[in-house]
């Protein structure tokens, strides 16, 4: 199959699609750029009378007329080609041969005869083969080829990115984390991670031996001390933190739910707006109040709270009780911002 028109080859694929839509071409949707060039070339050539007056296609028909009007040289007969090639080779060798100096004319007289004989014996087949070697492409052709390959690579990279599902996964994670509930869980997870180092410290378990072939050293492995799960040293501070940071604020946020009260719905009809089962603003306020009373003022409610657990939680959490209040302030501001955006 012959190559497409040079004017079409210089166009981008989006321009080719626009030309196809303009001329009413069908069945090109799944074609690549090179195939679309050939299809458009054949279609426009068959409908020259209909589209030749279109100004957007003037470049195509101008290029086509130039290509059709360029003369094609006829191949000379083989015998004439051999003779002319032989004459050119002989003439070139004679021109390259330096003329002898007057004083050395007698000593160098055999060399021209030898060169002429050498040129006469040069096979015409080798000269003909050399004349048929393709010349290097022009800079315009090189730039056009580079542009086509660049467009093909960009389209392939875009196709692979779309098929990988990275964009869909990123959007799903973003949607899941862009909620007030996600912020509340993030703050609670940060506090729990800091508390874990205090109530469930790591203990030495075993050592991975060194492997000289890989150049590795001995590596000790530490795991959480699971025996602490059956002691009050673990459950006392964990229970206190769970009550003050999760359960009691959630209980108040469920019953003092301002978001649910602001959108009353008839009985038996589902709510059309998103409502929180636990009001995040009330949750943050109650968490800040009870944490300040217990961890800052050290109120034990008549001995119900172990003061040793208060000290351990204060020492484990980042910033002590001030860190808990900071986290509650952050979640409260986020809940207010979310409520403003939904208005």
Polypeptide structure, described:
This is Cupin -type protein. One of its GO terms (cellular component) is membrane. It comes from Colletotrichum scovillei. Keywords: Membrane, Transmembrane, Transmembrane helix. InterPro entries: Put_GTT3. With about 350 residues, this protein is mainly α. It folds into 4 domains: about 5-70, no CATH class; about 80-130, no CATH class; about 140-170; about 175-265 and about 275-340, no CATH class. The chain contains 16 helices and 2 strands. The chain has a two-stranded antiparallel sheet with strand order 1-2. Helix 2 packs parallel to helix 3 (about 35-45), helix 6 packs across helix 8 (about 125-130) and helix 12 crosses helix 14. It is elongated, with a radius of gyration of 43 Å. The two termini are about 65 Å apart. Residues about 70-85, about 90-95 and about 100-120 have low confidence and may be disordered.
Based on helices, strands and strand pairing, what is the structural class? mainly alpha
Strand content range: under 5%
- Please give the share of residues in helix: 55-70%
How far apart the termini lie comes to 64 Å
Count of alpha and pi helical runs: 16
Number of domains: 4
The dominant shape is elongated
Q: Spell out the helices and strands N to C.
A: HHHHHHHHHHHEEHHHHH
Number of strands: 2
Low-confidence stretches: 70-86, 92-96, 98-119
Strands ordered across the widest β-sheet:
1-2
Integer-rounded radius of gyration: 43 Å
Biggest sheet statistics: 2 strands, antiparallel
Average residue-wise pLDDT:
79
């Amino acid at each position: 199959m012959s190559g497409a028109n040079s004017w079409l080859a210089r166009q981008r694929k989006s321009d080719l699609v626009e030309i196809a839509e303009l001329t009413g071409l069908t069945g090109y949707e799944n074609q690549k750029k090179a195939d679309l060039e050939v299809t458009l070339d054949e279609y426009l050539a068959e409908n020259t009378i209909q589209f030749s007056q279109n100004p957007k296609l003037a470049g195509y028909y101008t290029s086509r007329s130039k290509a059709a009007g360029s003369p094609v040289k006829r191949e000379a007969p083989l015998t004439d080609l051999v003779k002319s090639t032989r004459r050119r080779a002989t003439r070139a060798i004679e021109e390259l041969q330096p003329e002898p100096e007057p004083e050395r004319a007698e000593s160098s007289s055999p060399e021209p005869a030898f060169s002429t004989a050498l040129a006469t014996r040069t096979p015409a087949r080798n000269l003909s083969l050399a004349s048929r070697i393709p010349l290097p492409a022009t800079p315009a052709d090189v730039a056009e080829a580079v542009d086509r390959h660049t467009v093909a690579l960009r389209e392939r990279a875009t196709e692979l990115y779309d098929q990988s599902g990275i964009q869909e996964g990123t959007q799903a994670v973003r949607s899941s984390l862009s909620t007030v509930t996600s912020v509340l869980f993030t703050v609670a997870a940060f506090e729990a991670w800091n508390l874990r180092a205090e109530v469930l410290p790591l203990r030495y378990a075993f050592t991975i031996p060194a492997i000289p072939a890989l150049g590795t050293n001995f590596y000790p492995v530490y795991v959480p001390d699971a025996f602490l799960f059956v002691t009050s040293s673990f459950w006392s501070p964990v229970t206190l933190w769970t009550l003050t940071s999760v359960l009691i604020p959630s209980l108040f946020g469920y019953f003092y739910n301002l978001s649910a009260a602001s959108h009353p719905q008839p009985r038996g009809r589902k709510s059309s707006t998103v409502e929180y089962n636990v009001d995040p603003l009330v949750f943050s306020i109650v968490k800040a109040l009870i944490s300040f009373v217990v961890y800052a003022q050290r109120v034990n409610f008549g001995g119900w709270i172990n003061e040793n657990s208060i000290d351990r939680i204060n020492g484990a959490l980042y910033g002590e009780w001030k860190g808990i209040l900071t986290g509650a302030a952050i979640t409260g501001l986020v809940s207010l911002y979310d409520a403003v955006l939904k208005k």
